[in-house]
Design brief:
With 396 residues, this protein is of the alpha/beta class. It is 34% helix and 27% strand. The protein is built from 13 helices and 23 strands. Strand 11 and strand 12 form a beta hairpin. Helix 7 crosses helix 9, helix 7 crosses helix 13 and helix 12 packs across helix 13. The protein starts with a strand and ends with a strand. 40% of the residues are buried.
Length: 396
Amino acid sequence: MNKIVLLGCNDKTRAIVPILCKDASITAEICIASRDKSKCDEIRRAYQGRPVRISTARVDLSNESSTRMMLTIAQPDMLVNLTEASFSPIIMRLCLEIGVPYVDGTLFDIGSGDLLSKQFQFFSDFRNKNLTAVVGCDFNPGGITTLVRHAMSEDFDSIDTADIIEITPNKSNKKMSIKELVESKNTSSMGKKAVYIEKGAPCEVEPLSVKIRRKLPDSEEQDFYAMNNTIVEDFLKELPDVPTVRYFTTYEKPDTSILDELSKFGLLSEEPIEINGTSVAPIDFITKVLERHEVAGNLEENASSTSNRNSMGIILEGKKDGKEKAAMIYINDVKKMNAYSVIAGIRSVATKKWNRAGVFTPCAFNPSIMLDSMKRDGFSYEIMTVDPVEIIREEE
């Protein structure tokens, strides 16, 4: 593959470029494109002289015509979306226009509704063009569902329950952006219910009303609360043979007083308003304008993690050789795994190991392809026998 265009310049870009630019079996050139070209140039200068050439470009993805012009000049062989998931439909349309495959990292986009379904609407278009599109290549969901699919074939005869338990870094001393505050507010304080799958059907519970108490390796025993996460949606669509799927995480209550002030003026409304012929929801406008504005941590801890490492346990319960079995897949650095899983998606499409016309998630392919690619870059995990999960409900 001659050239891969990476759309977006952020922490994810900085994590995957060093791996990509030393592996000429994937591509001969990487073009990093972002609204702020100077940041792209910083990465280019840092990795000059590697086997893979790096170029840069300026692009404003909110302007589809100028993006189209940039791609006409760049002439990519693949587009990789490392920006906000909301740009996914725009970039997928452009892939169809210029006739190149598509890869992205995330299925999650706050306030967008069912993004995965919107992406799958392009399935017949990509199939008719004989192009591959792979969505959700972040470790969550792509790496997680791939690991579970692998366990279903190697370690279990059947899996009844998958509980994803994540320790998020302790943010008690961290400043938070307005966007992070809005997302945390939308998760719990604004009353949105947590959704998980119970016996094959979505189940809604009040925020923070369902929890488990567990100990992951290298951490103390603590509470994990049922929360919304895109992984639940992905299991429902991609792994329907697992009837019960729940996502639990540690929780810290942020100081959202600034959002209360914004709400008084209607600036957190999701109802679009029209300004000079442009329709925009106030909450989308405020998070975009103030996305770099930070608010002092001042977090009230509520069952917070004592670790600054983003670790995860995937607890699977089912049967093996007619006997009940519970095992946990443990990953001690989820942030690093995100880079490995996105690289695996890019590498698998570029080398045509993932070569199916249509729109898919990583779960649609042989799990060994993604796992072998991730191990090549340093991915590792542990599998251990554990006790089954016990659910604790608020009323109990």
